[in-house]
Specification:
Shape: globular
Distance between the termini: 18 Å
CATH architecture of the largest domain: Alpha-Beta Barrel
Strand content: 25-35%
Number of domains: 2
Bound molecules: pyridoxal-5'-phosphate
Largest sheet: 9 strands, mixed
Order of helices and strands: EEEHEEEHHEEEHHEEEEHEHEEEHE
Number of helices: 8
Helix content: 10-25%
CATH topology of the largest domain: D-amino Acid Aminotransferase, Chain A, domain 2
CATH class of the largest domain: Alpha Beta
Number of strands: 18
Length: 356
Amino acid sequence: MDISVTKADKLKDHPSDSGLGFGTIFTDHMFNMDYNPEKGWHNARIEPYGNITMSPAMMTLHYGQAIFEGLKAYRTPEGGVQLFRPMDNFRRMNRSAEMLCIPQIDENFVMKALLKLVDMERAWVPSAAGTSLYIRPFIFATDPYIGLKASSTYRFCMILCPVGAYYPEGFNPVKIWVTRDYVRAVRGGVGRAKTAGNYAASLYATELAHKDGYTQVLWLDGVELKYVEEVGSMNIFFKLGDEIVTPELNGSILSGVTRDSVIAMAKSWGMKVSERRIAIDEIFEAHAKGELKEVFGSGTAAVISPVGNIKYHEKVIDIGNGSVGPTASRLFSELMDLQYGKIKDPFGWTVPVTPA
Ligand SMILES: *Cc1c(COP(=O)(O)O)cnc(C)c1O
């Protein structure tokens, strides 16, 4: 399939690297392609970024058949642009698609489309420390029909936003809030898919956490309400003594690319890393015994997010006295150095965006 290109008549002014937030500024172009049962995925095109017209009956609006991904393009010290494990995002997108009855995409083709789009928009990749070009691929159902079924038509789209450093005020620990009243995902549900409804379902408890002065919710499993799952849009890690532990992928947890990178990197340093079930009680007991050394989240947006407090059943534990532990710090700086091309990549994770 060829990718047609329609250039924008007028290019936008670029924001300064220092004023970048997250997710409000979009580049000049986007990639689109459509699906129908006769043609499969077709009409692949790069065109000016702009609004989409839709039927009020468009199925996604009613039944939420939508999936997304999130990854970044980074500016290297030499002025080049590179991606981090992009194929892992497209592979995960296909796993999400399967669960939501959305047709599979050709991972190699969308990778080619992404390289072409980012190359066209390379001037939008910011270069100040910690900034990047966030990439949002997504697929949604487009049938104009309000009967309940899987849609027969879809749109695949990729849009790009220059984004600021996640920690403009420094790398500070966040406070997380554990609830037994609400769950994000259940056994047999769609927790492992990056699908729109999972995020809508997490908003209410997150608001309660905010009202209580906490940044994010730490979700427990939806069956026994005992085992730690993940935080907001991050996976979670604990350092117990000398060992790093993280919940195993049990079907209701999202399989983070950053999670996988943290595991591989820590193992490459000779650290012991276990993926297993972790009861929230075990974490509080380890803290009481002085064995809970560090807690941190992992995700594309923040890379590593140290956790300074956990509240559960009116009990609050402090981790690391407000400072960031050595493992979280080292993971944060080495992962960033890899992503930005500041150090050699022994894992084969980075993909250069070469100019056409
Ligand atoms: C996207 C996401 C993550 C992190 O995945 P990365 O690939 O590391 O960005 C973790 N949990 C949830 C629920 C997510 O949506």
